[in-house]
């Protein structure tokens, strides 16, 4: 087929509003777009480098541009570690293969065409009054995700429940609690109808989760990157959050999903704040999982030319013009 030409561009998407989690705020999503060209055909992928994992736009670009021109998807799994760089390239290789075959990616994998999946909508961390107003504006959405992880979380949670009395709620603490704080909050989370809590304790300092009661499911996010993460989660978590930027692409994400289910974990499919191009492969991954959290494009003021469709049924499979 010939060598593959690799191109990396930095794209900035403005957010619809300031987005805040326990680690800080942002007003835009900075992503890397990878274009792999072989002959007359190009495949595309997107990643969001994450400082929490020691990644930057520059370091990830360097990783990608250092890849050989005779790149294959199988070789890529050993050439780069799990992370943002491998993700963008892996997804671009899937897109390239689909275009070269004249088929959709799910046909190449041997999966049925993706059906719409209800996605969580994330409320930014703010004052209780402002979070109640956010919740009220989005009370029509069936599933809300709340970013917590501060000493004042109960007031925020109560406010969101007042604003959206019928929505299902999941909570993401972004490693912001201690075991004592989580134990104190857990009964209140249950009372307010929270269905799952994501990464309550810091990854690497989460052994207490195996010793305290877990009255509602606890999901590993920062503690789970790829299949190699699974042994350390045993007895501490009930669910894993599979994100393409952590697994290093769709190839490992599909394998992680299968292995996690075999080991008895429920699965959530999440995302960084990126465009529809970053979410498109994850729609395939999200089929039939416990929770889908692919709301990145809903948080943007601008998106790709052929964005994903979000409606009452959920997030739909990407058009061939977007990806795959």
3D structure, described in words:
With 324 residues, the protein is of the alpha/beta class. Helices cover 31% and strands 23% of the residues. The strands form three sheets. It has an eight-stranded parallel beta sheet with strand order 4-5-6-7-8-9-10-11. A three-stranded antiparallel beta sheet has the order 1-2-3. A two-stranded antiparallel ribbon has the order 12-13. A hairpin with a 2-residue loop joins strand 2 (24-38) and strand 3 (41-47). The protein starts with a strand and ends in a 9-residue tail after the last strand.
SS content category = alpha/beta
> Helix-strand pattern, N to C?
EEEHHHHEHEHEHEEEHHEHEEE
Q: How many individual helices? A: 10
Report the strand count: 13
> Span between N and C termini?
19 Å
Strand content: 15-25%
Strand arrangement within the widest β-sheet reads 4-5-6-7-8-9-10-11
Please state the CA-atom Rg, rounded to the nearest Å: 19 Å
Largest β-sheet summary:
8 strands, parallel
What overall geometry do the principal axes of the alpha carbons give?
A: globular
Extract low-pLDDT stretches: none
What average pLDDT do the residues reach? 95
Give the SSE layout.
Layout: E1 5-21, E2 24-38, E3 41-47, H1 57-65, H2 73-79, H3 84-101, H4 105-109, E4 121-123, H5 128-137, E5 143-147, H6 153-163, E6 168-172, H7 179-191, E7 194-198, E8 218-220, E9 239-242, H8 244-247, H9 250-262, E10 266-269, H10 276-285, E11 291-292, E12 310-311, E13 314-315
Parallel strand pairs: 4-5, 5-6, 6-7, 7-8, 8-9, 9-10, 10-11
Antiparallel strand pairs: 1-2, 2-3, 12-13
Helix pairs in contact: 1-3, 5-6
């Amino acid at each position: 087929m010939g060598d593959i030409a690799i191109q990396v561009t930095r794209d900035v998407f403005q957010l619809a509003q300031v987005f805040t989690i326990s680690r800080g705020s942002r007003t835009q999503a900075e992503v890397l777009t990878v274009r792999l060209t072989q002959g007359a055909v190009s495949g595309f992928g997107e990643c969001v480098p994450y400082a929490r994992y020691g990644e930057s736009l520059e370091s990830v670009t360097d990783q990608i541009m250092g890849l050989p021109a005779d790149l294959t998807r199988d070789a890529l799994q050993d050439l780069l570690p799990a992370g943002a760089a491998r993700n963008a390239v892996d997804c671009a290789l899937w897109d390239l293969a689909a275009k070269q075959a004249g088929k959709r990616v799910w046909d190449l994998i041997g999966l049925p065409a993706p059906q719409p999946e209800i996605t969580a909508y994330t409320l930014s961390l703010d004052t209780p009054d402002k979070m109640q107003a956010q919740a009220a504006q989005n009370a029509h959405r069936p599933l809300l995700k709340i970013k917590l992880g501060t000493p004042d979380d109960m007031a925020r949670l109560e406010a969101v429940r007042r604003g959206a009395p019928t929505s299902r709620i999941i909570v993401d603490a972004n490693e912001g609690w201690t075991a004592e704080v989580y134990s104190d909050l857990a009964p209140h989370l249950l009372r307010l109808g929270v269905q799952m809590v994501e990464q309550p304790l810091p990854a690497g300092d989460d052994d207490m989760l195996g010793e305290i009661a877990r009255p509602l499911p606890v999901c590993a996010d920062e503690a789970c990157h790829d299949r190699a993460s699974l042994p350390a989660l045993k007895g501490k978590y009930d669910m894993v959050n599979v994100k393409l930027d952590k697994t290093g692409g769709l190839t490992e994400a599909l394998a992680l999903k299968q292995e996690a289910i075999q080991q008895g974990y429920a699965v959530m499919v999440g995302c960084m704040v990126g465009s529809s191009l970053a979410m498109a492969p994850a729609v395939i991954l999200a089929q039939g999982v416990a929770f889908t959290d692919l709301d990145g494009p809903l948080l943007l003021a601008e998106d790709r030319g052929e964005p994903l469709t979000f409606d009452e049924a959920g997030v739909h499979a990407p058009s061939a013009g977007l990806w795959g």
